[in-house]
Amino acid sequence: MKKEKVLTYLLLILCFSCKKDFLQKDTGVELSNEDVFTSYSYTLGWADNSYSFLINDYAYFNGFQGNSSEFSDESIDASNSSVALVNKGLMLDPNAGDMSSIYSKMYRGIYNVNTFLANYQRVPSAANGGLDVIKAEQFFLRSFFYFELWKRWGDVIIVDHPLGIFENQDLPRTDKGEVLNFILNDLDSSISIFTRKSMLTRTGSAYGRASLTTAMALKSRVLLYAASPRFNTTNDIDLWQAAADVSAALLSLSDSKSLFSLEPKYGNLLTTPQSTEYIMIQNRPARSFSNNSFLYNFIVPSSSGGFGTFNPTENHAELYEMSNGLPITDPLSGYDSTNPFLNRDPRFYNNLIYNGMTWQKRTIAMWDASSGTDYNSANNFTTRTGFYCKKFWPEVYKAGSTGTSIINYIYFRYGELLLNYAEALNEAQGPTFEVYNAINQIRTRAKMPDLPAGLSQDSMRSRIHNERAVELAFEEHRWWDILRWKQGAQIVAQPMKRINVSNAQAPYSYSVVNLPTQYQKVFYDKMYFYPIPKVEMQKSNGVLKQTQGW
Question: Residue 292 in 3-state DSSP?
Answer without folding.
Answer: coil
